[in-house]
Design a protein that fits this description.
alpha/beta; 5-stranded mixed beta sheet; 8 helices; 5 strands; 36% helix; disordered C terminus
Length: 247
């Protein structure tokens, strides 16, 4: 019977002549392939894609400012792409206003309409003291003008749903393809009385109503913590509201 011979190995992964001999005779296993080449290739591919897509998300004005830095043919390609995107948006912008709703027409004006476009419904407060509802009504008009391919509607909550709690207003309902895709009770998640156009833009992007690189979406600047835009919050409307009667 052959006696097992112990072969000393300090580091089986070391690149030494002794280890090469041992691997050749099957005493120690082959070294696993180094991940470095795969990682380096992936990094190079990522850098290449980033360079090729460096103009993604830039609007026409931003592209014009790059005339001295970028190849003209490359810039022209993106100009045509932006103009095509704007043309699609313009053709789809058929709403452009806030639509007041009546309960008998709700199914037609909201549920059925959502098969053609996203429909955002604001269930408003019946009280003139609800600051959040006032703010959303104001912002709803701005959003409807800015995003004409999205249908923005309003109806008083208690006229839409009998007995709907006043404390739950304003409520936002997002419809698409006949279903409610998202609902938001009060503006707490968006920013409360400090809710801005930027917050509603994030809501549209999150719901899929517009793309994040939509040229109408104001992009965030480095001075901001988050969001898509640089437009100011509607602080002037956000007066202190006494809502003790709603709890």
């Amino acid at each position: 019977m052959d006696q097992r011979v112990h072969v000393p190995v300090d580091d089986p992964n070391a690149d030494t002549e002794w280890n090469d001999i041992l691997r050749k005779h099957g005493v120690i296993p082959e070294k696993p392939p180094s991940p470095t080449p795969i990682i380096e290739e992936a990094l190079q591919e990522a850098i290449k894609r980033a360079h090729e897509n460096r103009l993604e998300g830039k609007d026409l004005d931003e592209l014009d400012k790059l005339e001295d830095e970028e190849d003209e043919a490359f810039l022209e390609k993106y100009r045509h792409q932006r103009l095509a995107e704007l043309s699609i948006i313009t053709n789809a912008s058929v709403y452009n206003q806030v639509y007041p709703l009546q309960k008998p027409d709700y199914s037609r004006d909201v549920t059925e309409a959502s098969h053609k476009a996203f429909v955002f419904v604001h269930l408003t407060s019946s009280l003139g003291t609800n600051i959040e509802s006032q703010i959303l009504t104001h912002l709803w008009r701005e959003m409807a003008t800015k995003f004409g391919d999205v249908k923005f509607c309003e109806i008083r909550a208690d006229l839409c749903i009998e007995g709907y709690p006043e404390r739950n207003t304003p409520t936002i309902l997002v419809y698409k393809d006949g279903d409610i895709k998202k609902q938001m009770v009060t503006l707490r998640e968006l920013g409360g009385q400090a809710t801005s156009i930027n917050d509603l833009q994030k809501l549209l992007v999150g719901a899929g109503a517009v793309k994040g690189n939509d040229p109408r979406v104001v992009r965030r600047t480095d001075s901001e913590d988050g969001g898509y835009g640089t437009e100011p919050r509607q602080g002037s409307l956000a007066a202190k509201d006494d809502d003790d009667d709603w709890d």
